[in-house]
Every structure is written in structure tokens, then in C-alpha cells.
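Q: Sequence in, structure out?
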Amino acid sequence: WCISRQRSWGVPITIFYCASCREAMTDGKLMHHVADLFEETGSDIWFEKEAAELMPAGTACPSCGGGEFVKETDILDVWFDSGVSHAAVLENRDYLKTPADLYMEGSDQHRGWFHSSLLASVGTRGVAPFKAVLTHGFVVDGQGKKMSKSTGNVVAPDEIIKKFGAEILRLWVAAQDYRDDIRISQEILQRISDAYRRIRNTARYILGNVHDFDPATDSVADSDLLEIDRWALGQLEDLVVRVEKSYDDYEFHVIYHAVHNFCSVEMSSFYLDVLKDRLYISPPTSLARRSAQTAMYRILDALTRLVAPVLSFTAEEIWQQLPGDREESVHLARFPRFENSLIDTALNERYQQLLAVRSDVSKALELARNEKLVGHSLDARVLIEAPAGPVAELLENYREELATLFIVSQAELTTNLESSQVGEAVPGLKIRIEKAQGDKCERCWNYSVTVGADDAHPGACQRCREALAAS
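A: Exactly. Output:
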């Protein structure tokens, strides 16, 4: 590595030469003297002073005894400057430690900063200056082309912030697999914005439904939680493990996809959708409602902590609205603690099968809508014939919960079902959609044959009458 460069200015190579015999003066005492001058006044003194002014009085050449000297005019390679930055930064500050936890730069620095730092540190300290190195690709346009002002494909960060907000820019950075070149375009940013909105809407929905919940007094013990709430918390723990591992492994794009899928698939498309009936219809302080609120509160508390490093302002906004006593800021709080007791493999397997059945029912409901048989799913009565075996046994065990899981007014298990849809996710499953029996309850919007049976509440079904009596 040739560390000298012929430039007019830079960090000087502090070597003196005897004017008579050209002997190089490089002893440690002289070097420390010059280093002290640099520390006191800066390295420009090398160019401002004559050699005699930079050397201790009485310095003589060890070879010929001469007393006149000239300075080296070459400067250090700039890669040497950056290569010793670890010593200048980490070793001179008591609140930092060496070696550095991480060196991060573009992929071109394998033969640049990473290389020069390694050479300088190993050569002078005997150890690498870093514990880990992370390299990333370069930002290119949506077609993978290098950005250029002349081409007109440059996307400026301040323009993104003005149009989408800083949170979208941060989320875009986290969403990219930086090991390759990173694409950016208005279309990509719009997709990121849509994903952000789903995450934010999940938080808004939960906050709107825990407004009357005090975690200190209203929380339900794990053993008393309703089964679907325990399932949701088990899904949360899977997310916690995956996200924390991804942070440790610097796989931020995995965090983005995991959080987005959790909010849009497990939460919005299933769990929170199913919960609406229980949250809106059950008595305010009932076990059913408090169980749902307990699960939702714990989910949002953990989710907010997990996304805080990426969605800094959104997480703080959520944190300030969450009920209960907590740290002043989410950025002063720890990551969620993994709750191994909430992992129930058997429960998760049952719900995976139930979700497969639900998928087939949803397709049958969509066909019924297209045929104008029903409008909303609550207009429907679902008849199911399951193939003999584990699926039939599972559905029999969940017979009373099926209507809730499918978000229909009635769901029944039957045999010898004719004129039916055949399941795709569950082979052998038969489904028929009919109009729900009874009248529409004015309170829960479910159809029931019990509507009109009570003169005091003629428009309410039996379930709603019981809820009203308990409120």
C-alpha cells in the first residue's frame, strides 16, 4: 500500500531529512514532539512553519551531525486518513468503545474504507477496528438505472418528504433488501405509503377500542382469555421473535414484511374483523369484551415498541395515546419481552385449519354476492358438509363459533349437501350459501329467529336483549 500522495495540501507525512546527507529523521521522540504541536494548533502548522520551528531545539542529524533539515512534501493517502478514523473517534472519547460494533458503507468500500481501516488497525493495534461490516448497494430508479441529473431520473429526499412525509421515506429504506441496488420511484413510494396506512389503521382501530380500558384493573389473566384472543397473542409472540432476530441480523426488510403482513393478514383481515361483533355488542365490562381489549392492548403495546426504530414519530404518537402508566417516550422503553407461555402449537394448528375453511367459505360468499343472493355476509346462512376425519371433528368442536369466525348470521354443519360449492383450501369440503333465517337485529345486524320475541325490545335478538339487561 503506497500511502504517499503528491498533493498541495492534506495530512502531512511528518518526516524530516538532513539537508546535508538526506538521512530521514523518524525517531519516536521527534514524532511525538510534532504530534503535540499538531494537537495544539492543527496539522496546517506543517505548511506554515519552517523545519527548524517544528523540531526540538538542538536537534542534530545522527549520521553526519548536521543541524539543517527539510520537510517531506508528500501527504498521506486520504484512505489512510479515513482508515485511522477509528482511533481518532473511538479511542479519544470515554463514552465510546473500541473496536466499533459496526462499519457500514457502500459495496465499493470493500477495497476502500473497510480495507484501509483493517490494514491500519491490524498494523498498529493487532486487531480489526470493527466487530462487523455491513455493505449496501446504491440507490437506482424504478427501472434499475443509475440516477443522473441529465437523464432526469433523480428522486430527491426532500421532495419525497414533502409529498409523502418522512415516515414513508424511513419505511422505504427499511423495506429494501440493501444487499442489492435499491430501487425508488413514485410507484414504489405509493406502495410503501399504502402499507404504512395499513399499519397505522391497525393502530387507530385498536386505540379506538381500548379507550375505556385500564390495563392495571381491566386486564384478563392469560388463563381466562378467550381462545381466539390467546391465538392472536401467540401470533404476536411469533412476530416478536422474528422482528427482534431481524434487527440483530440487520435484515430490516424482513421487519417491514413481517409487521405489514401481521397487520394486514392476521389482524385486519381476520382477528380484528371477527372481534368487531364482540367489541360492539358485548356488555362493556363483560369477560368477552375485556378479553378482547386485553389482547388488543398487548398487541399494540408490543407492536409500537417493535416499529419505533423505523416509524419513530408514528410510534411516539401511538405511545402517547395508549392507556395505562408507561415510560415517557417509546424511545425510552425496552423491546417487548417474549412470552413463551403464549406459544401454543396445537392451538395454532387448529386455527390454521379453521382459516383454511374460512377461506373456502369466503369464496362461496363472494359467489353468492355476485349472484345477488346476499349483500353483506351477515345476510347469509352457511351450510357446511365436511369430509369425514379430522376436519369434520374440528368443525364439530367449533360448531358454536363458526358463525362468528365466518362473520355470518348462521353457520350449520350438515350431511348430504346438494347444490354446493366445493372447497379449494380444504379438499372434500362442501358449502352452500342461503339467505339467513329470521329478521335483522337492529343492534347487532345479525339475522335471528328470536327477533320480535320480546315486546320490550321488539327489534333486538335474544343475545342483544341479554347484553342490554347486563349493561
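The chain has 18 helices and 15 strands.
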